[in-house]
Known about the structure:
CATH architecture of the largest domain: 2-Layer Sandwich
Number of helices: 10
Number of domains: 2
Largest sheet: 8 strands, mixed
Amino acid sequence: MIDFKNTEVRWGVIGAGSVCEKKSAPAMNKIPHSKLVAVMRRDGAKAKDYAVRHQVASWSDDADQLINDPNVNAVYIATPPSSHLEYTKKIAAAGKPVYVEKPMARTHEECLEMIKVCEDAGVPLFVAYYRRTLPNFLKIKSLIEEGAIGDVRYVQVVMNQPAHPDVTDDPSKNWRIDPEIAGGGYFYDLGSHQLDYLDFLFGPITDVQAISANQAGWYGVEDIVSASFKFASGVMGSGTWCFTTAEVAKLDLTTIIGSKGKISYPSFWETYVDLETDAGVKERFTFEMPQHIQFNLISHIVQELLGTGKSPSTGVSAARTNWVMEEMTKSMRK
């Protein structure tokens, strides 16, 4: 493991694609003691283009070259899930910390292998579940901890989405619905964020009963999931995720029901939090998001590497979400 004392975190990025344009990589240059020094894409021309536009000193079309670059001391994997395990093994072998996009891998088994190789190499493993650090989601956590809605009884998740045009036009070009690349469909892509955040609020989910199916027949993995689940803390939960609904049915809403009130919030696209209690409180909280949505989480990661803080999202916590998603979709995999 690299000693980060008296130095800075010098990031290399594998897969400098769309997620790195604004969400993540640019934040690395805006955090104290952090710098983006190298980027890689299999298409060298696109890697060079990214480096030039973002003023990154080094670019490559070879992941091994970036991983073993002596100027790089931490690596961010921003590729689809199918390559996360392979790259994690190589980065861990090089003795460098790993920061990987979500979902953590295609399967829970792959997640466990990633955790093991990092533990064996003595390097930390972080996963990009950045909602654990955003102000709206931290507000929800503080309201619950303050007892604003009393004892939490259950949580209900509803995600209704019309089919994406790229699904109906040519699904073969969409890696997010190819289980060999993504592990699952849009449920894995979007539902993973919601389930990870609920893990952050209430602890691990320990029991799952679910049905998943493909109703529309546009691709080969689930397009609807209906689940009931229980947290180790005793909180109960239910959720329905459907990615082929009517436009008028579009909805992204999670409701947390307590003994004295409720909290409602969207997980995507909007950032409000609604609080309503038996005592007559009815309040909406609104929030501004960071310019780069992963800024806060990457800040925590940098602080942990420098020995001044702690990241709330790790390989261990993220692997739990992969386990839950597998339990929720196993009826579709039979």
